[in-house]
């Protein structure tokens, strides 16, 4: 019994010693905190970035903690810092910070909030922030134009440029041109459209263009192709005024027959009727091949192309032109009928799209012929005023010729 009492007393003494020791250690942390409470300012929300040109743009929604005084942004292991004042504590608003002077690289940033007492929040990181610059810009290419149909003039004379569909991340293309006042002007082609009107374009002047890109969908900066590219030379193709045309009959030329006079070739009636009316075209007598005729355009022009309409009730047959030469002169022809002062512009051959044998004509052949068969002049042809046709062969090997209309177009 005595021994048990001694053990109880020893146990109580040990418990008291432990309690006193624990009470002392519980206050030891105050020695390290200088008897102050640890405070952590609130965290920002929705941290994100926008890619920039040798800069980064960081964006976040601020902490609602009203005690926050500023934020410190750090990068490059803390060698780069920026302090941002806490201008708002409304989480619905945004704080935007532009970090300039960066290299073209991928960065990591940390954002730490500080209150008035200098207490710091737990740092928040934003990684894989891409910064773009000259290396990226050097890879950019100008948007392609439609090579088969780069431009056209609308009915009111306005120039329209035609581009291909944009590449990914293309945002716009700047068109630089000279207007009719002789001033440099620009127009912007939006990324989602393929055509653009160029108001007041001055014919004969160059057009250049340069495209712009964003490397990422919400990039802060737009990047431009380093140099403007040349757009194809603009040539306006216009129809010659047929009211100026005048028939000429030179020695050696073939005269008109059957009231199908030469001037019918420019009377614009081909679109009104395709019937075999006696006043619809030009017809010569049967003197054999070759046969020729001459007329005056009324003024000098650099021809781009012309269209020829056959006699419709004899398509690709009888006396419609098959192989013929076109000669030109810029001075009044010698009235002796010689060819010495004429320049041969080109030899042309009419085409039958179907290739069917003589006497057979397809619907495609009819459509092609009734649109007026187009014959392109060589780019090297000089300016001329007088034209002389020499027909070498007709579709039906006839010894005479006939046609219903000729329309000429010049390049401006």
Automatic annotation (TrEMBL):
Keywords: Membrane, Transmembrane, Transmembrane helix. InterPro entries: DUF5000, FN3_dom, FN3_sf, Galactose-bd-like_sf, Ig-like_fold. Residues 280-409 form the DUF5000 domain. PROSITE patterns: PROKAR_LIPOPROTEIN. The chain crosses the membrane at residues 6-26. This is DUF5000 domain-containing protein. It comes from Sphingobacterium olei.
């Amino acid at each position: 019994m005595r021994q048990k009492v001694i053990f109880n007393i020893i146990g109580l003494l040990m418990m008291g010693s432990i309690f006193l020791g624990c009470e002392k250690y519980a206050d030891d942390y105050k020695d390290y905190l200088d008897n102050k409470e640890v405070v952590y300012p609130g965290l920002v929300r929705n941290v994100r970035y926008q890619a920039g040109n040798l800069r980064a743009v960081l964006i976040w929604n601020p902490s609602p903690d009203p005690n926050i005084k500023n934020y410190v942004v750090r990068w490059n292991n803390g060698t780069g810092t920026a302090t941002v004042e806490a201008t708002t504590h409304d989480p619905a608003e945004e704080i935007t910070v532009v970090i300039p002077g960066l290299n073209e690289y991928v960065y990591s940033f940390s954002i730490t909030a500080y209150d008035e007492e200098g207490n710091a929040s737990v740092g928040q990181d934003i990684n894989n922030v891409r910064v773009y610059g000259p290396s990226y810009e050097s890879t950019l290419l100008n948007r392609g134009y439609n090579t088969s149909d780069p431009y056209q003039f609308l009915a009111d004379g306005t120039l329209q440029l035609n581009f291909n569909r944009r590449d990914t991340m293309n945002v716009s293309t700047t068109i630089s041109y000279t207007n009719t006042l002789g001033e440099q002007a620009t127009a912007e082609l939006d990324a989602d459209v393929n055509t653009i009107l160029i108001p007041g374009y001055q014919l004969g002047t160059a057009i250049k263009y340069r495209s712009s890109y964003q490397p990422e969908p919400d990039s802060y900066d737009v990047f431009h192709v380093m140099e403007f590219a040349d757009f194809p030379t603009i040539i306006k193709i216009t129809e010659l005024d047929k009211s100026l045309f005048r028939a000429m009959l030179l020695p050696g030329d073939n005269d008109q027959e059957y009231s199908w006079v030469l001037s019918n070739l420019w009377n614009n009636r081909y679109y009104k009727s395709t019937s075999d009316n006696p006043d619809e075209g030009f017809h010569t007598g049967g003197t054999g091949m070759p046969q020729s005729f001459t007329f005056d355009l009324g003024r000098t022009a650099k021809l781009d192309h012309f269209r020829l309409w056959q006699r419709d009730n004899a398509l690709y047959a009888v006396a419609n032109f098959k192989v013929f030469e076109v000669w030109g002169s810029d001075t009044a022809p010698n009235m002796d009928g010689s060819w010495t002062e004429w320049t041969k512009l080109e030899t042309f051959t009419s085409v039958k799209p179907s290739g069917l044998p003589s006497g057979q004509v397809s619907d495609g052949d009819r459509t092609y012929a009734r649109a007026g068969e187009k014959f392109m002049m060589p780019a090297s042809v000089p300016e001329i005023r007088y034209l002389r046709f020499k027909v070498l062969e007709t579709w039906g090997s006839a010894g005479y010729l006939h046609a219903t209309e000729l329309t000429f177009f010049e390049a401006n």
